[in-house]
Amino acid sequence: MQGNWPWLVPLASVLVAMFAGSLGNFTEKNLVDRLMTGYRTDARPVKNSSSPVRVTINVALAQLLDVNDRDQQITGIMWMRLYWTDEYLVWDPDDYRGLAAVRMQGSSIWRPDIVLYNGILQNGFAELPDTKVTVTSNGTVFYFYPFTFKASCKINVIDFPYDTQRCPFKFGSWTFDALAIDVISKSSEGDLDQYRKNGEWDMVRFSAQRNVVSYSSSDVPYADVTFNLVIERQPLFYIYHIFAPCIVILLISLLSFNIPPDSGEKLSLSITMLLSLIVYMHMVVASLPATSNYIPLIGLFFGVIILVVSMSTILSILTIALNFTNMDTKPPLWLKQKLGMTEVWRWFDCVFCGCVRPVGEHQQESYRGRETHQRAEYGSAEETAMLPLRQINFEDPSDNGNHICELFDDSEDLLPHLHGVINKLEAWKRDQLKQKKKDDVLNEWKEVASRLDRVFLLVFIAACVLVSCTMTYVIA
C-alpha cells in the first residue's frame, strides 16, 4: 500500500485544480446572474433620478484614410473609450472569492447613446457595436470599441496646397441633456500614441474641449466633447506635378519672344502653352470644392499665369501683324523715339543687346528676285531698242566702216531708238525709287515690331517676377 501513495499526490492536485476552476466559473456566473436579476437596459443606472450619469470620453485616432477636398469629407479609424459608473453593477469582491472585475456583453447593460454629431454614415452611431464591456466591483464600466468614421469637415482650400485644415469631431448624447448625461473629457488632448502617419497630411494637433450648449428655446443644456483635429498638407506632390510644369511652361513662353517676329511658329508656341495651362488648371479645379466664397491660392496662380501667357500671345499677334504690315507711311516720330530707333540707340543695341535687323537674308533674296523680275519686264523693250546699236563696235570705231551708215542711213532712224531707251530707263528708275521707298517704310515697321518684341519681353519678365514675389508673400 505504501508503494502506491506517490501516485495519489498528482491525482489529488488535478482534482483540486478542476474543482477550483469550476468553483471560479460558478462564482462568476453567480455574480452575473445576480447583477442581471431585475436589471433594465433602458433605465439610467442611477438610484437618484435627479443625478446625472457622468460619462467620460477618450478618443484615440488610429489612422486617416482619406480627406476628400471636393466633397468636404474626412474618413479614418478611431478607438472609442467610454467610462461611466453603473450604480446597479456593484458587489463586494470578498463575497465572490476576490473577483474584482467581470466582462459582460455590451447589449446586456445600459449604455449611453453617444454619437458623432457631424458623422455622415448611413446609420450614424444610433446602434452601438455590441462588444464586451468590463465592469469593476465599484460599478465602473469600461466600454471600448474601434470604428471607421466618415465625418463632414469644412475644407478651406484658399491656401492650397499649403493649407491647414481644422476638422471637429463632436461627440455627445443624442437624446439626453446635460442634466441626465454629463459628458466630460478624460484629458485635454486626444490619444495619438497609436496614430499611423499619413503620406499627404502631417498631424499638428488633436485637442479635446467640453461644451455645453442649448438647441431650443427651453434653454435645456446639452453637453458634448469636441475633438479638434488640425492637419497640415504636404505640398511636395503638388509642387512636383503641378507647379513645376507650370513654371516650365512659363519659361518656354518667355523664350518664345526670342523667335523672329516673322516666324509662324511664334504664335503656335504661345497658343500651345496657353492650352497646356488651361488643361493643368482644369485638373486641379476638378479636385477642389466648388465654392464662391473665396478664390484658392492655386486658382490665383493659374489665373495670373494664364493672363500673362495670354498677354504674351496677344503681343505675339501684334508683333506679327506689324511685321507683315503694308503701310504706306512711316512710323510716327514719337514712336521711333520711344523705341530708341535712333543712331545712338542702334549702336547701343548692336554692342550690348545684339543688332535689331528685321530684314534678313531671305528678304534680300526676295529683293534680288524682284529686281530680276523687273529687269525681265523692262528687258524686252530695252533689248528691242538697243538691238541695232549692239551691232556697232564702240571700242574700235575703225572696224565699223560704213556699218553705221548701213544701220542708220538717216539720223531720223536713230532718234526713235534712243528715245525708247531713255523712256524705259526713266520708267525703270521711277519704279526702283518707288519700290525702295516702300521697302524703307516696310523695314522701319519691321524694326518697330522687333523692338516692340523686346519691350514686351521686358514686360513679360516683370510680370513673372511680380507674380512670383506676390505668391511667395501670400504663402509666407
Automatic annotation (TrEMBL):
Organism: Branchiostoma floridae
Record keyword Ion transport present: yes
Annotated ranges, domain Neurotransmitter-gated ion-channel ligand-binding: 28-235
Taxonomic superkingdom: Eukaryota
Membrane topology (UniProt): Multi-pass membrane protein
Family the entry assigns: Belongs to the ligand-gated ion channel (TC 1.A.9) family.
Stated name of the protein: Neuronal acetylcholine receptor subunit alpha-10-like
Residue ranges of every copy of the Neurotransmitter-gated ion-channel transmembrane domain listed in the record: 243-469
Gene3D superfamilies in alphabetical order: Neurotransmitter-gated ion-channel ligand-binding domain (2.70.170.10), Neurotransmitter-gated ion-channel transmembrane domain (1.20.58.390)
GO MF, any single term: excitatory extracellular ligand-gated monoatomic ion channel activity
CDD domains reported for this sequence: LGIC_ECD_nAChR, LGIC_TM_cation
GO cellular component annotations of the record: acetylcholine-gated channel complex; neuron projection; plasma membrane; postsynapse; synapse
Signal peptide bounds: 1-24
Subcellular location as annotated: Membrane
Gene: LOC118411695
One record GO biological process: regulation of membrane potential
Transmembrane segments: 237-257, 269-288, 294-322, 455-475
Keywords tagged on the record: Ion channel, Ion transport, Membrane, Signal, Transmembrane, Transmembrane helix, Transport
